[in-house]
From TrEMBL:
GO terms for molecular function: phosphorelay sensor kinase activity. CDD domains: HisKA. Residues 8-183 form the Histidine kinase domain. InterPro entries: HATPase_C_sf, HATPase_dom, His_kinase_dom, HisK_dim/P_dom, HisK_dim/P_sf, Sensor_HK_Regulatory. This is histidine kinase. It is an enzyme of class 2 (transferase). The keyword Calcium does not apply. It comes from Oceanidesulfovibrio marinus. Transmembrane segments: none annotated. Gene3D superfamilies: 1.10.287.130, Histidine kinase-like ATPase, C-terminal domain (3.30.565.10). Its EC number is 2.7.13.3.
Amino acid sequence: MKSEFLSMASHALRTPLTSVRGYAKLSHKRLRRYVFPLVPNSDPKLAKIKRQLDENMQIIVSESERLTFLINDVLDLNKLDAGAVDWSMEPYDVAEIVEHALNVCGNLFDGKPIESSMLVTNGIPRVRCDRNRILQVLINLVSNAAKFIPAGEGTVRGERIADSVVVSVSDTGIGIQPEDREA
């Protein structure tokens, strides 16, 4: 019953998501090819809008692709239950992953007196990881920071400690109460 529901729900989500992703890619391609060249870079306001539109379209496309991966994971719930998740391990730049997570969550900070920052130590080697899963964790942590601090600061750090690369998210919020933490 559960697997039947997951299969139907995943299919119902995947079909419109495929359309959204396809139209987003097509729109972004056409904006870059036909519209952006017509916008004069001499006007700082228009140049800023063009840059923001380009970044927003990139985020829409990449997040729709990430959502497709998440839906595929839901479809394979039996693998999750059995601890047999497929990992797509490749070398990635930590700063790029952190920056992408902050860009995705950037609008969550709009209108709030919250300063978000990224502190990634220079010289960190590329890390072999599953980029989409690391992004999922970082986006969850950053969006929680945006939701639960009314004002203050949220920081994503990346640093090399001994033979490891550590990425952390900290904020000036009240944190999780001890009784609500899992052991």
